[in-house]
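Worked Example 4.2. Consider the chain below.
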Amino acid sequence: MPIIDDFIILLLNARELKFMKKIGFVIKNDAEAQKRALEIKSRLGEKCIIIDVNRCHRSDLPCDLSAIVVLGGDGTFLSVARFIKNSDIPLMGIKFGEVGFLAETLEDKLFDALDALLNNEYTVGIRERLTVIVKRDKKIKTSVDVLNDAVINKSALSRLASCAVYIDSNYITTYRADGLIVSTPTGSTAYSLAAGGPVIHPDVPGIILTPICPFTLTNRPVIIPDSASIEIRLEGNPSDIQLTFDGQEGVKIDSEDTIFLKKSRNPVKMISLNDQNYFNVLKARLMWSGGRI
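Applying the procedure from the previous section yields the following C-alpha cells:
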C-alpha cells in the first residue's frame, strides 16, 4: 500500500485524532511544499496550525502546540528557530530546498515522518545557540540568539577587517581578515565549513572561531569551550562592516561597538526520527563515499 494511503488511514482513526495535540507547520514559499501543506491541512483539520513567521508573533501560538514541522531548507529552519525565541517547542525539518543539514528528513519521507511524530517514534536532541549582544556606550544596540553563527563581514571594496578577540577578558589575537565567523557546532557545517573550519558533532560542547581569508596564514580556526565568554572589538577605522545573524539578519557595526558572545540559555529542541543518524546525514549532504543528497 502506498505511503500516502497508510497516512490517510492513520489520520482517519478517530481516537488518535481526538487526543492528538496540535502541530504547527511553517511552509517555505515553494510550490511543492505548499502543495504538500494543503494535503496535510485537509487531513489534520483543526489539529494543523499553519504559521506565518513573518506575520504572527510567538505569543500567538496555541499553548498546546506539541511540535513545529518546517517544510523547507535550512534557511527556513533557522528563521523558525529565531521566531520561537526561548520557547521549548521542538522543531522537525523536512527538506524542501538545496541544503539540508537541519532539515534532516527528505521530502519523499514526509508522511513517514509525520506518522512517526504522531506515534511518538522519535528522539529530541538539544542544539545549542549563541547569544550575541552588541553594545555601544554601554547600551545594548541589539541582542539575538543564533543557531548557526554570527559573522563579521566587510563589503567587497572595504579594507581588511581587524577584529580584536578577547576570551574570558583575556586578549587572544587580532584577526586581520575579510571577516570572522563565530559558530556553534550546529553551524560548523554552514559558512564556517566553507571558510575552512572543522566539522563538529552537535553534541560536542564548543564554540568555533573561523577567520575568513585571513591576511596572516597563522591565524587558523580555533575551538574554545562553550563556557567561555567572547568579546570582539573592531580596530582602526573600519567602514562598511556588518554583523549578520544566521546569514539572515544583520546590523552595521564600527569601532564604537563591542560584540559579546556566549552560550545561550535557550537551546533549540530538534526532532530526529529513530532511524536517522547524524553521520549518515553528514556524509549524504557532503557526498562522502558516494553519498547522495
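The mean pLDDT is 86. The helical segments are 3-11, 14-19, 31-44, 74-84, 110-118, 191-194, 278-285. Compare this with Example 4.1 before moving on.
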